[in-house]
Amino acid sequence: MEKSSGTKRNSFSSSLGFVLAAAGSAVGLGNIWRFPYLAAKNGGGIFLVIYLVLALTFGFTLLVSEVAMGRKTKQGCLTAYGVLHSKSKWIGVIAEIVPFMILPYYCIIGGWVLKYFTVFATGNGAAAAGDDYFGGFITSTVSPIVFDVIFLAATAVVIALGVNKGIEAISKVLMPLLLLAIIGIINILSDP
């Protein structure tokens, strides 16, 4: 459904908000969670170099292309490809299906993060550091589902709030917190 030209589209209110949201999308929970494992398993430093080259070439190119396409067509992903070329409408459909395919993955990982955040915030971090804690959590019948649903609900609320009050606002809070957490982890691990 196309919007009339008189309808104001919801957009980012600042460049900082856009940059933080784009960085959050590029970094992603999957990269933070799996990256150390993948780097260690696949060659360490050389993996990091190749990863950075690919991220800066392909990742940056795709980001700039997507932003340019959005600015030119003034459309969302679903309809922008069709505006550019009528035979390309199917690409927009696929681009809308992919997030629904990865949503369960992110809900599970997000639920785990939420569980551990809750455990550490309530002062039970020592118990969570035990070898059997994670296995006990993921094999539980109720607890993982509860945290997955809470994560899904929080995500739905952010999206329902829209670009300014949802995605941009949460990015302005969570991305600096992520940076502080990474700096803190590096500081802790570099102490003798």
Automatic annotation (TrEMBL):
SUPFAM superfamilies: SNF-like. The chain crosses the membrane at residues 12-33, 45-69, 90-114, 134-161, 173-190. Keywords: Membrane, Symport, Transmembrane, Transmembrane helix, Transport. It is found in: Membrane. It is a multi-pass membrane protein. It comes from the Bacteria. The keyword Transmembrane applies. InterPro entries: Na/ntran_symport, SNS_sf. GO terms for cellular component: membrane. The keyword rRNA processing does not apply. GO terms for molecular function: symporter activity. Pfam families: SNF (PF00209). Belongs to the sodium:neurotransmitter symporter (SNF) (TC 2.A.22) family. PANTHER family: TRANSPORTER. This is Transporter. It comes from Ruminococcus albus.
